[in-house]
Amino acid sequence: MLMRQSLRRSNILRGYRSFSTVISHGALLVERPVRFYYILEESSDPRLRIGFAVARGVKGAVHRNRIKRVLREAVRLHRQTLDADLRLQRRTLRAVALFTPSGPSSSPPNRVNLATVEAAIAQLLTRIDHQLANPKS
Questions:
Q1: How many CB atoms lie under 10 A from the CB of residue 115?
Q2: Which of these CATH numbers, 2.40.50.140, 3.40.1380.10, 3.30.230.10, 3.40.50.720, describes 9-133?
């Protein structure tokens, strides 16, 4: 059976309270240009719930929305093994992927490409997957 590739609405974390809970109480992983806050919890309905945000330093709604689309696509491309491990261990991952520009010398946000963000997301999801597989390390 083929797994559905898209992110469903039920996989998207929404709302100020949900975001602030994950950011304030969750663990943090950083792989430039993405900061990944997450909470792993036991659940009878295991799933990935992820929200996407862009730091305030990125000006212009068009640029922020494009970056969020790129983040969503990167997660969509690399979530299959993580989904399988979450189901196997009956856990839910609530996460926020926050794009942060590196600084004044970094490329403008409209120059952000999928390959850069995809590499960062792939690294972050792999690290979380390893943490799921080896909870003691």
A1: 10
A2: 3.30.230.10
